[in-house]
Each structure stands twice: as structure tokens, then as C-alpha cells.
Amino acid sequence: MCARDDTRKKYGITHVVTCVSLYEESFPPDPAEVKSGHWHVIRLADAATSDLLSHLEDVTTFVKTAIDSGGTVAIHSLEGVSRAASICIAFLMKHRSKSLREAFDEVAERRPDVRVNRGFWRQLHAYEFYVKGKNSIEEADLPGAIIFEVDAMASIIGRFKAKHPVPLIANPSPRKVSAIKNDAKAALTGGAFCGSPRKSKQPHTPKLHAAVNTNVANEPDEFALTETSSPPKKRARTEERLSTLVV
Asked: Which CATH number fits the domain that encloses residue 78?
């Protein structure tokens, strides 16, 4: 609706961001508005393998420039719950000093039915690290399991990192990786399909867990990454059987 001229005039919209695929488009962008720099168009499907990450720098700059000039920006996709929401989240991270978690919460407060797809979550996670030099959400706690999209996601994020190899904010101290408490993990699960870190029912992709190395003198924050192993009881039973066989 915001693409219609009468709607833009009614609500004082001076700039528009359109993020849809061609076949989803009901009202094509005004060529004159696009040429004048008042309409930013991103051709992208709402799919986990779509590359939104490569557009975030340009589109967030477009939104900031429009707002700084006193304009009002309408950001829309087909339903406004995944692509448009992701762009809003990226803008809040880049130009309003929000973390990914804070930006999502702010958008969700205004649009409770936000359902960012699992691929865009990983791309926003990579964008947060580029903007902040750290992440506010552990990758293992992002909604949805990336299984069939692993190669596509690695390619999208890899291209972005090759173009932007250094975070905008440098963090001189090493990143600290710590285990998340069980109650904290529980707070990030249960709810709608693939929508938020608090609402996803999808299984998490298996990840590496951080094991704190307490044997290093004066370096309590040093850690080593180890693969998830069997539970202690199961491991003990296995070792008992092995010792029996050896005897």
C-alpha cells in the first residue's frame, strides 16, 4: 500500500524501501522517484538462501540519509514481517547503537508478528559482528536449524566478510565465549515458527561448546573449543565396558 502515490501523500512518506521479488510486486516503484533517489529497490525473495546481507550497508545508509534530511521512510516487503523487519533491525544496529537482541525487541514491540527467516537471522548475526565487533546472541541460539542452507549461508557471509574484513568497532580484548545457563536457553525457545530467538521451535544446529581452561595462570578467560561429547554417565558406562574387555 505504501507504494501507492495517494497513500504516500496521506502519511507524508517521502522515501520508500521496496524489498520484494518481481512476481510479488503489486505496485511497481515510481521510476521518477527511483531516479531522484527517493525510492530504494531490492529484488529479493523471502528465502533462507537469499542474500540480504550484501544490501544492508546501502539500504541502511539510504534510510539514515532520508531521516537526516527530515524525511519519512516506509520500508516494505510482501507482509513486512521478514525482509522489511530485517532491514529495520539492521538500521537500528548500524545507526541507533542497538544490539541485534535490542533491535529485534524494538521492532517486535511495534510489530508483534515479526517472523525473520532463519537465513536472515544468520546474516543479521554476521552484520552485528561487523557493526559492533561482537555478538549479543550466541549463534547456537539463533532461530531455526541451518542444514540444507549451510553452503549458501557460508558463501553469503564469506563474500560479505571478504568485502568488509574489519569490524567498524574494534574490540582489542579477545571475545569471551561462555556457556549459557539452562534457564537462559529456555527463555530463547518455545513459540512460533522461525520468528525470533524467543519463539523458535526448530532444533538448533549442533555447535561447538566452550570449555574454560582454568589451568592457565593469570588467564582465567582463556578458553578452548571442544566438540560436544557423550553424557558423563553414558561415558562412564562405556569406559567400564572397555576396561572389562581389556581385562
From this structure: 3.90.190.10
Which helix H or strand E contains 226, and what residues bound it?
A: strand 223-226
Burial 40-53 (b: 16+ CB within 10 A, else e): bbbebbbbbebbbb
How many CA atoms, within 13 angstroms, populate the side-chain half-sphere of residue 74? 20
What average pLDDT does the segment 200-213 reach?
38
pLDDT at position 39, please?
95
pLDDT number for residue 96: 95
What is the residue range of 36's domain?
5-173
Reduce the DSSP state of residue 53 to 3 states and report it.
helix
**Residue 229 contacts residue 244 (beta carbons within 8 Å):** no
Q: Is the pTM of this model over 0.85?
A: no
Given a cut of 50, is residue 46 above it in pLDDT? yes
Looking from the CA of 30 toward its CB, the CA atoms found within 13 Å total 15
For the chain, give the mean pLDDT: 76
* 3-state SS assignment for residue 143: coil
Beta bridge partners of 12: none
Domain count, the chain: 1
Q: How far apart are the first and last CA of the chain?
A: 77
